[in-house]
Amino acid sequence: MMISSRHVLTSILMLTPTLANAGPAPLTAEQTFDLYARTIMEDDQAARKQLVSDVDASLITLRSMSENKEFMSKVFPVASPHFPLQHFSSAKNNGSVAESTDAFIATVFRNTQCRATHSNVWHRISDGYRIADVSFSCNVADVTPLQSLFDAAIFNDEDSIGETFWPKYLTTLRDGPFREVHGITRLLMAPDDATWQSNRMNGVLPQAQVGEDIGTVLKEAWMAVEDWPYQTLSTVADGMNGIAECDDFVAHYRGCVARISPHEVVGAKELAKELKVRRRDSSEPELIQHCKALRLKVASQWPESCR
């Protein structure tokens, strides 16, 4: 049967109002996560506007992470009351140290850029909700290579406030290099609804489950520095072999290297390990003589202040 062009045109015209009223497709779970992340981490006003219009109008009050001081002090080292804020003084220009700190933290959050990678969507039979377990990744500063500088500050009695470590640490937090870390959060879609939403929280971040879960990932990455003193002291204790001449030599070596070549302070750990192994195969008098001779040899290569 032949269909006339007039019939086809009439059919198209009849469909047009329906297509025009269909509106944009609902946000996916991944798109919704990204809007939350851009709003609470990057203070992205365009993302906030879309979140309010397409997800929930009440989210207009959604706070950024950096505005929650209690949360920040637990997640971000620079916001901790123990952080030496004097290291921001050189960057404050005409503003206060506090203003400089706030601007710095905002920059770090913008550079972190947490984004959804994929999601697993399933249906909860008990109440009709759809659940999206959203996996995400964040770019965080890789501070691990700075641990030797941190150790050097501990053992350098001429640098008790970490003048070498903290400026380098701040620069790394802001500028990288970065590494990728991963986490997972959950979004819910109510029955007869088409929008994904994050659970409300009553914890340290009273804004959204997304923020809480991102915070957990960032805390693990950023607050590693809090564990370094314990790791360092444990390493020192494990490296002692009980012979005063040898343990004193290692301590002296560690203190001198911390002053003259901070990046090489890890060498003290290797030296202690070597002497501990030798302890099993040598008598105490032999090891004492070895440590004395080694100290003289190494000291000859040091500046006068370290001898």
Q: What report would you give on this structure?
A:
The structure is a single chain. By secondary structure, the chain is α+β, with helices and mostly antiparallel strands. The protein contains 12 helices and 4 strands, in the order H-H-H-H-H-E-E-H-H-E-E-H-H-H-H-H. The protein has helices spanning 5-21, 29-42, 45-54, 69-75, 97-112, 147-155, 165-175, 209-222, 228-239, 244-260, 266-281, 284-299; strands at residues 115-123, 130-141, 178-189, 197-198. The chain has a 4-stranded antiparallel beta sheet with strand order 1-2-3-4. Helix 6 (147-155) packs across helix 10 (244-260), helix 10 runs antiparallel to helix 11 and helix 10 runs parallel beside helix 12. Mean pLDDT is 81; it is low at 8-20, 90-94 and 201-206.
